[in-house]
Amino acid sequence: MNISVIGGGVIGVSCALYLARAGVKVRLFTGKELGSGASGRSLSWLNASGPWPADYYNLRMAGIDRFRSLYCKNTHVDWLKFNGGVFLSDQDEVRKWYSIEKERGYDSHLFQPEDVNSIDAKINPAAIGPYGIYNAGEGWVSLPELIECLVSEFLTLNGTVIENAGKTVPIFDAEGATKGVVSQKQGEYLCDKVLLACGASTSKLVAELGVDLPDGSVLSMVAITEPFDNRPSVVLNTPKVAMRPNPGNSLVIDHSWYVNEIKEDENGVCSVPEHIVEQLLSEADRLLKSDVPITLAGYKAGWKPVPADGFPVLGELQEMPGCYVAFTHSGATLSLIVGELVSWEMTTGKSHPMLASFRPGRFKS
To answer: Which has fewest Cβ within 10 Å: 29, 60, 184, 281?
Structure first.
């Protein structure tokens, strides 16, 4: 079997690797460099916390499981850690999340301000409300390094990576079945099946092929700090700021409250008002016990892939036999399990029950 994957983010790379592990000949096409889209600017918090529907919760838990397996083989790396996560919000929401998590058997612990430094000594107790939640089994991953790790194995399995290919799209035979891809820089390449894993561009691409895949993608921004000695080891998710450790002793910081203030120019370059970045860093400073303020190394902004209903879109497009799609928010948590299950479907021709709720056809009226 010969398969083309379009998309060089973590979802596309993971799918390509799992296909190669199955003995398939795989070519991975990416319009620019690997990881140059949303995967290069992700908080990438590995979690299944909160009031998710059961099928999505189960998929996220499977995703975390695959990362724990990867971590067991790579405990020495600085880009994948399982030091837990802290969730802060108003008292009612904290109690709601805690109740749901305990009912599911999630490793969830309610704590008060005076307890927080037993979880992480770098957190400021004065910034904690009446209660917070500590999820001991959560972690984080830096996706650029993960992509490098996955691509390294992919190449040893004789996979082919074609970077800077320009726009790449599937092509079809007279009966409407997938027969290959064509790219701006590489021309036509024939294959048996194609996977579209193009992040926030996925809906636009399939629309050009005549398929409606509703899109809820939003502009987003993450800030990266200078090296910071007093950084926490846990992931923090709060009403005004989310943060995690990052390789190089820095922090990655983001949130969603400022998305409407991010601007994109005619060349696709995004900018964020200076006061937004300053406020985000100020919120981060407030959470930490440190007399030294966090300083900015830079920020990255662009489109965050989000299907219209917020849930993954995974599987074969009914309108185009042999053409599959993998379009999802939470690309970090889901990247390895999506790669495993979508590649299994592509190579076996079977449908995996864990993906039943996430088919592209659910948007049809």
So the answer is: 184
